[in-house]
Write a structure and sequence with these properties.
This protein is mostly helical and 231 residues long. The protein has 10 helices and 2 strands; from the N terminus they run H-H-H-E-E-H-H-H-H-H-H-H. It has a two-stranded antiparallel sheet with strand order 1-2.
C-alpha cells in the first residue's frame, strides 16, 4: 500500500478523509486493530493533535472504537441493505423514542461499569467529564459528552454491551434533532449535565452499581426533560 501523506497543517476535515482513505486502502476489516498513534502519525504525516481530532470524529460516527490499553479497532457496521440498516431505523425513529431507547440501555451499562471499571477506565471517565465541563463551544462539549458516555460503556468491560452502545450512539446521531436550539455559544456555567456527569462518575468510581444506574437514568431523564418535557 502506498503511504498517504498530508502536511501537518491539514484541516480537520482533510485529516478525517485522509484517515478514511488509509483504512480503505489498507483493506482493514471490522474488528481489525489500526496501527498505533505514533505509526499513524508517521504514515499520514499528521501531528498528534490533528490525528486525534480525526480519530475522535470517526469514533463519534461509530466507524472505529477505542479501548484503553488495547488500541483502536474498526467497528462492525450494520448491513448496508435490509430493514435493519441504520438509515432505515433512523427514518422510523423519533427523538423521543431515541431517548426512550437510551433510558432502557444506558443505565444498565452504567451499572455494569460500576461493577467492572478498572482504574484506567475510571480515569478516562473523569477526564471526559472534566473536558466536557470546560468546553469552549457546544460542538466541543458534545464531542466530550459523547466520549464520556462511551468511556462509561468501555468501563463495563463487556464487548457486547460496548457494541450495543455504539449502535445506539450511531443511531442517535442519525436521528433528526430539529427541536434542539442553542441559546448560547457554549454550555453555561452551572449547566445541569455537569453535575449529572459528576454523579455518574462518582458512583462508578465508588463501585456502587445501584447509584450508577440511578445517576445515569436521572441524567438521561433530565436531558429528555430539557428537550421534550416529561415523557
Amino acid at each position: 500500500m502506498d503511504v498517504l501523506t498530508r502536511p501537518n497543517g491539514a484541516t480537520r476535515d482533510a485529516a478525517i478523509e485522509t484517515l478514511r482513505s488509509f483504512i480503505v486502502e489498507g483493506d482493514y476489516q471490522p474488528g481489525d486493530r489500526l496501527p498505533a498513534e505514533r505509526e499513524l502519525m508517521s504514515s499520514l504525516g499528521m501531528t498528534r493533535t490533528i490525528l486525534r481530532k480525526a480519530l475522535d470524529a470517526l469514533e463519534r460516527e461509530g466507524a472505529i472504537w477505542r479501548h484503553v490499553g488495547k488500541g483502536t479497532f474498526l467497528a462492525h457496521h450494520a448491513a448496508d441493505s435490509g430493514p435493519n440498516n441504520l438509515s432505515s431505523i433512523a427514518q422510523q425513529l423519533s427523538p423521543v423514542r431515541m431517548i426512550r431507547a437510551r433510558l432502557c440501555m444506558e443505565p444498565a451499562i452504567a451499572r455494569e461499569a460500576a461493577i467492572n471499571a478498572s482504574a484506567d477506565a475510571i480515569a478516562q471517565i473523569n477526564l471526559a467529564q472534566h473536558r466536557a465541563e470546560n468546553a469552549k463551544s457546544w460542538d466541543e462539549y458534545e464531542a466530550h459528552d459523547d466520549r464520556f458516555h462511551r468511556a462509561v460503556a468501555e468501563a463495563a468491560d463487556n464487548v457486547l454491551l460496548l457494541w450495543v452502545f455504539d449502535e445506539l450512539n450511531r443511531t442517535k446521531r442519525a436521528v433528526a434533532w430539529d427541536n434542539v436550539v442553542r441559546q448560547s455559544a457554549r454550555p453555561p456555567e452551572g449547566y445541569k449535565s455537569f453535575a449529572e456527569h459528576k454523579s455518574i462518575a462518582a458512583a462508578i468510581e465508588a463501585h456502587d452499581p445501584a447509584a450508577a444506574q440511578d445517576a445515569m437514568r436521572r441524567h438521561i431523564g433530565s436531558v429528555s426533560g430539557r428537550l421534550f418535557g416529561e415523557l
